[in-house]
Amino acid sequence: MSEKHLPLWEVFIRSRSGLAHKHCGSVHAADAEMALQAARDVYTRRGEGNSIWVVPSGAITASDPADKDELFAPALSKIYRHPTFYEVPDEVGHM
Amino acid sequence: MYTQALNAISDEPADQSAEAARFQAQVDAEQKIEPNDWMPEAYRRTLVRQISQHAHSEIVGMLPEGNWITRAPSLKRKVALLAKVQDEAGHGLYLYAAAETLNVAREELIEQLLSGKAKYSSIFNYPTLSWADIGAIGWLVDGAAIMNQIPLCRCSYGPYARAMIRICKEESFHQRQGYGIMLTLARGTSGQKAMAQDALNRWWWPCLMMFGPPDSESQHSDQSTRWKIKRFSNDDLRQKFIDATVPQAHYLGLAIPDKEFTFDEASGHWKSGPIDWAEFKRVLSGGGPCNRERMRVRRKAHENGAWVREAALAYAEKRRARRDAIKIAAE
After folding, report:
1. pLDDT given at position A95
2. Which residues in chain A touch residue B94, judged by CB atoms under 8 angstroms apart?
3. Contact (Cβ atoms closer than 8 angstroms) between residue B92 and residue B55
4. pLDDT band at A93 (very low <50, low <70, confident <90, very high)
């Protein structure tokens, strides 16, 4: 097929006010406006959202799963970053 | 099911690398595999084939039902059928999106369907002769699809599992919609009841075939089971479907079109007579009543849409060029 491919867009939907946009899939569309319309038809047929973001797939930079250990392991040993690391005497009450 | 045409992957030796062992350990621990994770090439290939065949089935599946949109008996039935057919398109698109995360272009997958290289479910090669067929499809075909798809919600590949969760939620409406049609016909005139029975007679056996060849002949199950793509065997799912469907048919006052059909007290299961696997193979390999018609319509739709895709791209290109020109002028 010699036809030019329609660009790929990642779709993010806010399911209701107060929640963050969440990735839900992708669509193909020639431009942003059509991507929004396609995302609305494909991913919100039953009131699943009240706001949509579409982002060109190529614009996303992702971490490499192969680097997972270097990136995320250092956080695992830093238990002092959690409130449960610290003792508060019972007499002090809720803190 | 919708991927019943998958054959043996190949006889290639199993991957013995440390990566492969890590991958299998991850799968065994029920941790999902995500697009950028390392995966054996055969796992990726199997998934691309399975997910794309599944997507093709959803897309081709619109045709038998689309046949009745303009002839639905009431506005209520028409809007419901329209919504259902639109859902099938949506399901196809969720699945193409999931397949694309495995590094394959959608255009390539569609080309495989249109050239006849990729298969789709045998069930969509049967004609919809009466309105009752729309009821039978929703009740039985979507019912069988749900049986198969619920375990796929726990498939080891994250994007496929997530697509299946969305799809299963929507299929539930499809099945009730179909059963509702059957219920109305079954409570109607004797002519309407006969129409419902006739639809059941024609769709029953093809629906049992949807689960794919019997376990004794199914070659790809072992590897797919190890990879946690497949969780139940074809025969197990088929039996589950039969046991769930029979009481529903009895409630409608319809008879299962199988002379050897019996209830086995010992096992608590309904036992079906022999399935005509020669018919299954014939329909899957292109010899069903509607194979050529389905592909002809799909190809025509694709060709007729070419100018729209071209125009949309040209318009996007023109607007981009204009924006760039304004930017340059402003600098």
Report:
1. 87
2. 25, 42
3. yes
4. very high
Q: Of B148, B140, B162, B155, whose CA–CA distance to B233 is shortest?
A: B148
Handedness of CA B290, B296, B302, B305 (dihedral sign): negative
CB-based contact A4 B313, cutoff 8 Å: yes
Mutation choice for B interface testing from A2, A3, A8, A61 by most B CBs within 10 A: A3
Q: B interface mutation test: which of A41, A42, A69 has the most B CBs within 10 A?
A: A42
Q: Is B34 on the interface with A (CB under 8 A)?
A: yes
Q: Residue ranges of chain B with pLDDT lower than 70?
A: 1-14, 219-221
Is B306's Cβ below 8 Å from some Cβ in A? yes
Q: Band of the pLDDT at A69, cuts 50, 70, 90?
A: confident
CB under 8 A, 24+ apart: contacts of B265-272 = B269/B239, B269/B242, B269/B243, B270/B242, B270/B243, B270/B246, B272/B208, B272/B242
Share of chain A above pLDDT 90, in %: 79
Q: pTM of this prediction? A: 0.91
CA distance B90 to chain A (A): 5
On whether the CB atoms of residues B166 and A48 are closer than 8 A, the answer is: no
